[in-house]
Amino acid sequence: MRYLLLLLPLLSSCASPSRGAVAQGAVAVSDADRIVRDLCDKRLALLGEESHHGNGRTIAFKAELTRRLVEECQYDAFFIEAGIYDFLHIQERLTAGQPVSEDMVASAIGGMWANQEMAPLIPFLSERLKAGTLVAGGLDDQIGRGTYAQRQMTRELIPALEGPRQAECGAELERHMSWQYDDAHPYTAETAKFILGCWKELESVLSRPGAAATPRPQGQLQMVRNLERNFARQVAVMSRASEQTGGTPDWSDFNERDRSMFMNLEWLLSQSPRPRKAIVWLATIHAAKDLKGLDTDARHGIPFGSYVREKFGAQSFVLGFSALSGSYSLGSTARTYAIAPAPADSLEGWAFSSHTADTRYLDGSQLRDFGPRVARPLNYSWTTAPWATVMDGLLVFREETPPRPVSRQGSSEK
Asked: Is the dihedral of CA 262, 266, 267, 269 positive or negative?
């Protein structure tokens, strides 16, 4: 490993190797080094985070881990839980030999990660994108505010329509992207259905034989297909809301969105003639291999990671994060919330019993040894689960902190 720590004091010879004991005379390896070792030979490294996306230490760790996986393990793709649209626009510009700025990359990643902890990763990704040694992509079909997708995309897509539909769809789509709804023009289920019809017509036009023969129409077709899936979900959600009568919470929107993200992953990977090694940055609840073992309503979720595990098996790895205590924020917002200290019988509490370091990494064998145990790597709410079925490794921070914002435009629509 690249970074080695000083020798630890001699540990008890009866300590279990699976619990992180170091044999006499061995060199201790940092948690970061152990994680790099576990991920280095995988094809897909799914790097999770708590679902509010407001965890500064987690983001900083993931940013540095991304750099190491690219430099030390030859990962050559970076995909993130952000809109696919801006990244397709960036790839179009790169293919055409047009300049791509760091601000474009930051905007594509989105305001959810517009913070100082993510900032060092922006020039790193930008340089490699321009050099052609790395590809980047968004997984989500949602539209980020302040992005190319919100500001320009519609005006570039609408000219493909013909006749009066170009003006009709153009006016409604522009209103939606700028959210200029009022009493005279409310956003209703009928509005969503009309917009969905526009996207379906555009897909039909762009799918005609020969229409997507060049990179730009190919990217536009992928944009429209994502917009169609996005608005189909909106129509379904609004329809269900009008019929809601209580009972079991409906996870259809979550499940359909995660299926859409996996479809984007498959498409992004298919664009390369050779297998890629991809870093996938997203919330742990999406990265999870399986949620059925949870004792909460989340067990009804069918996450993105379940499709990854079904297709790639042991070639994929899900890394989760949690904290013993500290605080977090709601994404890019300034408001912070305390993380209650973990009880001793929780997974986080056990991880730091008789442990003095700032982090504790639990690998897959340790997670399996524990069996079902209460923990909070998904959203800082206590959940009991056999966590080895959810993730392949878990890094616990002694104290989490909120990210520090930077002055960037936009924030992801979540």
From this structure: positive
